[in-house]
From TrEMBL:
One of its GO terms (molecular function) is metal ion binding. Catalyzes the insertion of molybdate into adenylated molybdopterin with the concomitant release of AMP. It catalyses: adenylyl-molybdopterin + molybdate = Mo-molybdopterin + AMP + H(+). Residues 196-332 form the MoaB/Mog domain. It comes from Sanguibacter inulinus. Its EC number is 2.10.1.1. This is Molybdopterin molybdenumtransferase.
């Protein structure tokens, strides 16, 4: 297949096209206990004022009237609210979370008051009428009760119909706890996005030392995990023989939302992917990207609307394809916002072909030359400043050693950059 590099999408266009090609998968209602880690599809709203009633934040007495003593006339405990109004000059025992009755002035904490008999002795059960006294500190007037002290008004945290969590984000434990507090039994989330993994290539060995002309398979041991890190639900990879029929049948047999294949993207004698996609009537959305490595990566839409990403067989090229196409596609299918690129400052000149971006694994090094380098995510985290990005060794498309030790991946523009250049920084998914 002949590809004119000038007509190829740029790295940025291909990255954006993969996101744009994805329609979020349908939503479903799930019980709250299943919602953490799922992507919210409809806003989580408060079904009531939260808290529902005006309640006490402390154990003690709720009193009516600013100054005591107050006659003790009842109690308002969590689950056993006092339903009548508190008359002036009276008090009720109240627990944290207990409903504050109408007529209340404020809550006096139990450690700042005492219950006494009419003649001022410490009151015990059976002593008859009891009076609540505020016990002032030795050096001043009672600090409590004050107007509204330790009282949480109904609706303090949320009013009924308030949006508590906006859609388009992965639900966290406290968000789901909040939804429960606000009266929800379930939430509407996108259903999981599934992926199938097909590893092509007759020369790949799955264990032991490869013979001459063979390589150890770099994908089956890691791709399922990498796919899961991108939020895709997947099982182990399937190995596919290097024939057209095998490729067609293997793709046809996949039921997942996304089919990820490795190898066979080029036009070599044993590269069947393009031919298989033609047989299957697939539409190519991206067919090669102006980038190195990973140039032959492709994104296709199968006839039934599912997506297929063809990752090149070279290990680093395949990883470039994951970062360029699979990650934005997965985000779009899951109903999440697109990737936010960081920015990194280069420690030295980094070359790139005239017409292709270059994806370069890098390590962070101190800014000893004063190039003013910083990585935004470090600054946001309030940690390191003055950090530069230096390309790793082992940048060949058939290698993984550089990426294996990298802190991130630079997207170096066509033509390369000088030292001190600000370059987009692809965060790693692991
Ligand atoms: N005449 C041309 N040849 C090639 C071109 C080109 O434009 N014209 N592009 C090159 C580029 S760039 C890449 S990248 C590769 C893409 O190759 P394929 O996707 O077709 O993959 P294969 O040919 O099957 O394998 C390439 C390479 O990767 C090794 N490989 C394959 N699978 C695995 C695996 N599971 N684990 C580890 N290594 C694997 C395979 O042994 C080959 O060495 O094409 C270039 N050629
Ligand atoms: O894209 Mo190839 O990945 O340049 O080796």
């Amino acid at each position: 297949m002949d590809h004119d590099s000038l007509l190829e999408p740029s790295w940025a266009d291909a990255h954006a096209a993969a996101y744009a090609a994805a329609r979020p998968v349908p939503a479903e209602r799930v019980p709250l206990v299943e919602a953490v880690g799922r992507v919210l599809a409809e806003p989580a709203v408060s079904l009531m004022d939260l808290p529902r009633s005006t309640t006490s934040a402390m154990d003690g007495w709720v009193v009516s009237g600013e100054t005591g003593p107050w006659e003790l006339v009842g109690s308002s405990l969590a689950g056993h609210p006092m339903r009548r109004a508190l008359a002036p000059g009276t008090a009720a025992v109240i627990a944290t979370g207990g409903v504050v009755p109408a007529g209340a002035f404020g809550v006096l904490r139990r450690e700042l008051g005492s219950v006494r008999t009419a003649d001022g002795r410490a009151w015990t059960e059976g002593d008859g009428p009891a009076w609540v006294h505020a016990d002032p500190p030795a050096d001043g007037p009672p600090a409590e009760p004050a107007a509204g002290s330790h009282v949480r008004p109904a609706g303090l945290e949320a009013a009924q119909a308030d949006v508590l969590v906006a859609p388009g984000r992965v639900l966290t434990p406290p968000q789901v706890g909040l939804a429960a507090m606000a009266g929800n039994d379930g939430l509407t989330v996108h259903r999981p996005v599934t992926a199938a993994l097909l590893v092509m290539g007759d020369e790949v060995r799955h264990d032991g030392l490869p013979g001459e002309g063979e390589v150890r398979d770099a994908f089956a041991p890691q791709l399922p995990h990498l796919a899961r890190m991108l939020g895709l639900v997947t099982g182990p990879a399937t190995f596919v023989a290097d024939t057209l029929d095998a490729a067609v049948e293997a793709i046809r047999a996949c039921e997942a939302d996304v089919v990820l294949t490795t190898g066979g993207t080029a036009a070599g004698p044993a590269d069947y992917l393009h031919r298989a996609l033609t047989v299957l009537g697939a539409e190519l959305v991206v067919d090669t990207v102006a980038m190195r490595p990973g140039h032959p990566v492709l994104l296709a839409r199968l006839q039934d609307g599912r997506s297929l990403v063809g990752l090149p067989g070279n290990p680093l090229s395949a990883m470039a394809g994951v970062l360029t196409i699979v990650r934005p596609l997965a985000l779009g299918l899951r109903g999440l916002p697109p990737v936010v690129l960081g920015r990194a400052v280069t420690a030295g000149a980094v070359g790139a072909p005239a017409h292709d971006s270059r994806l370069v694994p890098y390590v962070r090094v101190p800014d000893v030359d004063g190039l003013g380098g910083l990585l935004e995510r470090d600054v946001a985290a309030g940690t390191t400043r003055g950090v530069l990005a230096r390309p790793t060794a082992w940048l060949g498309s058939g290698m993984l050693r550089g990426l294996a030790g990298a802190d991130g991946v630079l997207v170096v523009p066509p033509g390369g950059v000088q030292a001190g250049a600000v370059v987009p920084d692809l965060p790693l998914p692991w």
